[in-house]
Amino acid sequence: MNNADTAVEELKRQSEITSQLQDILYLRAGNKQPKAFVHTYGCQQNVADSEKIKGMLEKAGCAFTEVKEEADIIIFNTCAVREHAEDRVFGNVGALKALKKKKPSLLIALCGCMMEQEHIAEKIYKSFPYVGLVFGTHVIHKFPELLYNAVTGGKRLVERGYDDGKIYEGMPLRRDGSFKGWLSIMYGCDNFCTYCIVPHVRGRERSRRPEVVLSEARNMVRAGFKDITLLGQNVNSYGKWIDEKTDFASLLADVADIDGDFWVRFMTSHPKDASRRLIDTMASNPKICNHLHLPFQSGSDRVLNKMNRRYTREKYLEIANYAKSRIPDLSLTSDVIVGFPGETYEEFCETLDLIREVRFTSLFTFIYSPRVGTPAAKFDDPVPHEEKAKWMGELLRVQEEIAAQRCAGMVGKKYRVLVEEQARDGVLNSRTQNNIVVEIQAPSELIGTFQDVEITEARNWILRGKLTEK
Ligand code: SAH
Ligand code: SF4
Ligand code: F3S
Fold first, then answer.
1. pLDDT above 90: percentage of residues in the chain
2. Are residues 330 and 375 in the same domain?
3. From atom 5 of ligand 3, which residue's Cα is the shortest distance away?
4. How far apart are CA 432 and CA 140, in angstroms?
5. How far apart are CA 379 and CA 69, in angstroms?
6. For the whole prediction, is pTM greater than 0.85?
7. Which ligand 3 atom is nearest residue 114's CA?
8. Is ligand 2 within 6 A of the CB of residue 189?
9. What is the pLDDT of residues 403-455, one digit of tens each?
10. Are residues 64 and 95 in the same domain?
C-alpha cells in the first residue's frame, strides 16, 4: 500500500471509532448532547487544525460552546512560538482546576505545538494532574481514537507520535467562518531559522496535491466563501516534493481562475523563495489580493545570517521594490524580531532604516524569545530585556507614524471592501483587498458581502468610510 492508501485506511478506522464515540459521549454528558469548548492559540495553521478537531467532535455528536462552565470537553490547541504564548496556556490551564473539581466528568485535553516539546509535555503531566489527554500535531488525525481511549480507559493519556511524512486528506472539517476561510496548501517547515521552534514541532515540509487544493477551493467558492487564504509556513516553496512540475505561482493562478466573485490571498512568503513570477501572477490577476506578507525579521545582514534566513537586506529590498512597482496599491506587511541574541543597537537601527524605506502597511513585532532546542537559544544574549523593550518602543513609534501618514493619504479614495463583522453598535468592520480595515456605518445584514466605500476620515491608523453607490 502506498502512503495515500494507508492514510485512507487509517481515516476509515477513525471514522468507525467516531461512530462508537457518539453514545459514549452522550451518556457521559448525563444523557444529553455533549458540549465542547475549543480554544486556539497561535497562528492560522493552528486555527485550521482546530477546524479539523471541531469537525471530528461534530461527527462524534458534540455541540459547541463559548462558555467553559457548560463544557463536557475542553480543548486548548496551543502555540510554542514564544514564551509569552506558552505562559498564557499555563495560566489558563491552571485556571481549569476548579472547574474539573466541580465536574469530575469534564475531559481537559491539550494539543498543538507546545505538546510536541518533550519538556513541556512532561511539565504538563506533572503539574496539571487534572489534564486527561495530551496530544501533539503529528497525531491529530487519530483524535477520535485518542478521545475514545481517554474517556473509556480511566487513565491519563499522552500521545506525541512522530512526523510520518503523510498527509491525511479527507478529515472532517468544521469551518469557523462562512465567507472568510483558510486553506492549508502545505504543512511543516524545512527552513530551520535559528530562533524558530516551528520546524521542530510541525515536522518536515510537505505539500498537498494541487488537484486536492483546487477541489477544496472550488467547494469553498461554491459554499459562498469570499475571501480564501492559502496557508503554509513558506508558501513559496510549495510543490517542491511533488513529482510533476508545479509551483506556488501556478497554484495561485489556478485558484484565482475558479469561476466566482471572491478574493484569494496567501501567507507566509519567505523572501528567499519569493519570485518575480509570483509577483507577476499577483499583478495580472484581479482576484489575487494586493497584499504581500513578506517577513524580513531584521534589516542587518549579519543578524540575518545568524538567523539562517538565507537572504540579504539587498535581496529583500529588491523583491519588495519589484512588488511595489508592479502592483499599484500594494500592501506590504511583515514580521520583525527585535533583540535577536547579539544584535547591537546599530544593527537594530538598520531594521529601523529598512522600515522607513519600505513603508509597510503594518508590522507584527516580536521581542526575541529563546526556545529550548533551537540554536539561537545557545547564542550569547548580552542585551537586557528592558533595553530591547526600549528599542521596540522606538520601532513602534516609527511604524505608527508611517501607518498614520498612509491612512491620511487614503481619505477621499474609493475601495471595494468585504464587510466582516460587527465592531460596535451600528458600526461594522470591513477590509480592503490589500488588508486594510475600514469602519463603516451599515446594517449587519451586509456582513459577508462585498461593498464599495469611500474613505471619509483617518484617525491615526483607524479608517472610517461610507457606502457608495455601486
Ligand atoms: N513561517 C513564517 C513565520 C512563522 S512564525 C515565516 O518564516 O515568515 C511567525 C513569526 O514569529 C516569525 O516570522 C517571527 O517573526 C516570530 N518568531 C518566531 N520565533 C520567534 C522567537 N523565538 N522569538 C521571537 N519571535 C519569533
Ligand atoms: Fe520558522 Fe523560519 Fe520556518 Fe518561518 S521559515 S516557520 S520563521 S523556521
Ligand atoms: Fe503556529 Fe505557534 Fe505552532 S505560530 S505553527 S501555532 S508554534
1. 91
2. yes
3. 198
4. 35
5. 44
6. yes
7. 7
8. yes
9. 999 999 999 999 999 999 999 988 999 999 989 999 999 999 999 999 999 99
10. yes
